[in-house]
Amino acid sequence: MASAVITALILCLIEITVIVTASPMVKPSLILSFLPEDVRLAAKDHPEPSKGRQLLGCMLLVFFLIAMLGGILFLGIEGIRNGCGFWELTLRFMVMLYINKAFDIVVQDQWLVMTVGFYKKIFPETAECEGWKNRNFNTRNQIVRIVFYPFLCMMTAGIFLLFA
């Protein structure tokens, strides 16, 4: 189980690094889709970065997705090699995803977005938006993911066992 925790923490570190680095480089619409509605409206005309910067930003996001897939593959393959059954594999995936989700909620949403105001620096035209004060701006989306994760983890464990 320690490997699931370590994998999750490494992925959290990669994720925050990619978010902070790539956010100013990608199309504003991509970033704004994760932010409160009034912030999206206020920044809808924000200029896009150059195509080269957008390409670099997208490459960083792809790197994170590959790292996430690599983490899942690592935990699944290591679990199979260590003789894990369905429920043990499911638990490994759940540990990784729930640590990542807790990191997402606490560090990214509450700290980076709300407390530090990271995106206000990227989108200064949104500085006066009320959405920046609403700490529950994406609670519904987070709850849906939290409820869905066990089923996703069971499906992933089943796939690994099917090909083992």
What does this structure look like?
- The chain is 75% helix and 0% strand.
- It is mainly alpha-helical and 164 residues long.
- The protein is built from seven helices and no strands.
- The mean pLDDT is 92.
- It has one domain (2-163).
Describe the structure using short key phrases.
single chain, 164 residues, mainly alpha, 7 helices
What's the short version?
The chain is 75% helix and 0% strand. The protein is mainly α.
The low-pLDDT segments are none
Q: What radius of gyration results from the CA coordinates?
A: 18 Å
**SSE order, as H and E?**
HHHHHHH
**Category from helices, strands and their pairing:** mainly alpha
Q: Total strand count, please? A: 0
The number of distinct structural domains comes to: 1
- What percent strand? under 5%
Largest sheet, strands/sense/barrel = none
Using the alpha-carbon principal axes, give the shape. Answer: elongated
What is the averaged pLDDT score? 92
